[in-house]
Amino acid sequence: EKHQSVEPFLQGKKVLISAGPTHEKIDPVRFFTNHSSGKMGFALAEAAAKFGAEVTLVTGPTSLNIGSNKIKRIDVISAEDMYEVMHQYFLTSDIVIKAAAVADYTPKLVYEEKMKKQPGNLQIEMKRTKDILLSLGEIKTHQYLVGFAAETNNSIEYGLNKLEKKHLDAIVINDISTEGAGFGGDTNIVTYVNKTQKREEIELASKKEIAEKILRFIDRDMKDEKH
Ligand code: CTP
Ligand code: CA
């Protein structure tokens, strides 16, 4: 990288980010999960640190390492764990970004011993997890709260619904059915929409570049609100 100085426009801001999937345990050897490499959330954490923020990254299980030793990383496993840690840090945060792919369901019963396979089909009863983002939206005071929406169809419509229902300040919508967007890869294509419904299309780019753009939009919108 070039020796260019970066404006530390997030200096003095506490940024809380969640990343990765969650694992919902069935028994000691099995779990349910969602597709998510964690790369978008990690890119956001690294970009926020680069722009001067004090960053806490709450991540579900991923194989990623964080490059910066300035980032406080907290590893969690399940949606319930992520809920607890996000609430623990929420009140003292200025910007909160939920890039995690949280499981919507978790097994009703967890078996303490490995379930032995049986002839025929298996049915597992699942219950809903808590909606972490919604729960934060309901208690937020000064925090700038940003969600993600990964959709396969009608992505803008579904994304705007989530923006409103979860009391968000902005949402980052990505259509995972588009080539170059979504899970696993190093690139993404997203639409950032703030609560005044102003839309910013971010074209195909690395997750790092997209993370930096998202943070610039957040900073712009936080400054606009103060006027
Ligand atoms: N989210 C969350 N807790 C959950 C489920 C989702 O905090 N239990 C957050 C995600 O981290 C993301 C946003 O809500 O920022 C949208 O997640 P998404 O899965 O797209 O939406 P859902 O509300 O779960 O609706 P659905 O999966 O039915 O589209
Ligand atoms: Ca979901």
Automatic annotation (TrEMBL):
CTP binds at residues 104, 114, 148, 162, 166. GO terms for biological process: coenzyme A biosynthetic process; pantothenate catabolic process. This is Coenzyme A biosynthesis bifunctional protein CoaBC. In the C-terminal section; belongs to the PPC synthetase family. One of its GO terms (molecular function) is phosphopantothenate--cysteine ligase activity. It catalyses: (R)-4'-phosphopantothenate + L-cysteine + CTP = N-[(R)-4-phosphopantothenoyl]-L-cysteine + CMP + diphosphate + H(+); N-[(R)-4-phosphopantothenoyl]-L-cysteine + H(+) = (R)-4'-phosphopantetheine + CO2. Residues 10-219 form the DNA/pantothenate metabolism flavoprotein C-terminal domain. It comes from the Bacteria. The gene is coaBC. One of its GO terms (cellular component) is phosphopantothenoylcysteine decarboxylase complex. It comes from Oceanobacillus arenosus. Binds 1 FMN per subunit. Signal peptide: none annotated. Pathway: Cofactor biosynthesis; coenzyme A biosynthesis; CoA from (R)-pantothenate: step 2/5; Cofactor biosynthesis; coenzyme A biosynthesis; CoA from (R)-pantothenate: step 3/5. Keywords: Decarboxylase, Flavoprotein, FMN, Ligase, Lyase, Magnesium, Metal-binding, Multifunctional enzyme. Catalyzes two sequential steps in the biosynthesis of coenzyme A. In the first step cysteine is conjugated to 4'-phosphopantothenate to form 4-phosphopantothenoylcysteine. In the second step the latter compound is decarboxylated to form 4'-phosphopantotheine. Residues 15-227 are annotated as: Phosphopantothenate--cysteine ligase. Its cofactor is Mg(2+); FMN.
